[in-house]
Amino acid sequence: MQHDLLRRIEVATPSGRDRGVDALRALAIGGVVLGHWLVSALVADSGTLYVTSPLRHMPYLAPASWLFQTMALFFLVGGQMAATSHTRARVRGLSYGRWLGGRTARLFRPVGTVLAVWVLAAAVMLALGADLQTVNALAKLVWSPLWFLLVFTALTAATPLVTALHPAWPLAAVAVVDLVRFGVGGPGWIGWVNVAAGWLVPYCLGTAWSRGRLRGRATGWTLLIGGATASAALVLWAGYPASMVGVPGAPISNQSPPTLAAVAFGLAQCGAALLLLGPLRRALARPAAWAAVAMVNLSAMPIYLWHQTAMIAVTALGLLADRPLPGLHTVPDSPAWVLARLAWLPAFALALLACCAALTPPFRRGLDRGR
Asked: Is-above-0.90 flag for pTM?
């Protein structure tokens, strides 16, 4: 059966499909999922659950966040795919409205199921006596990642305009906004301009990539070295946080809204991604490796939407034990917690697999669905 599945996936893959791009998206999804599972801790305290982060209690772990903050990859690959898709749609004579409707439907169709399940779950928890603080903490874990869909949809809608925009312009906008916020004491609300401008930088790079502008390895090295140097300088000498994910209680977050340090770090990630394309393409010539990447891409939205629910489900089942379980309900304030949390990751993965198996057939309508 496994051999038959590998053969079906291989046969269904168009000959011109860039498997390296799909691998980058799979890596981005994996980074987000693992990052959330490792930096979001649900602590049980006198019958109440609250959310905290090991980065708050162990700030020396901030470099670990560099491995799991992969949102720039999402926007880089998203820009490349959207621009390529829009060009193909124009060649086929498809209207802008139909093109955009098709892409946004794939994004938002599964969201309704998540919202319906969690409205029901919240009602049941409250009816069974759960306190409002616990229900709010759990619901926020689920709906907070949905910001990505709103921003990504807005950028997708602007794809025809973005293709003519050089990424230096939104990068300059981010720098100006941070200068106003942190340099001259401007209003904090102006930082939210960077939600659009910050993620527009890798998205613009993606649209340029679709037009053949980022082919040389020199571009990848320039982005990697330049972005890494800039982000390090901003952290070491300009007072930006070292963590590239949000930390509860921190006075400044690199993500809410995105800062210049986060955008520079994203540029470094984009450069690394471009340099990895060749090795990834060669590795994915093997049917087994490609099948794994293809399956992740086919289930990309369910994985993104349900990974926090999977963690919550395991945490809730763990409450049936007589005492708080290390790495699951305890305060994340020691390396022992990190080791315990790593041991829980297979359980989270199995719970997520169950969610995806219930919501998404493993193989449907061919691999072009993801493009």
From this structure: yes
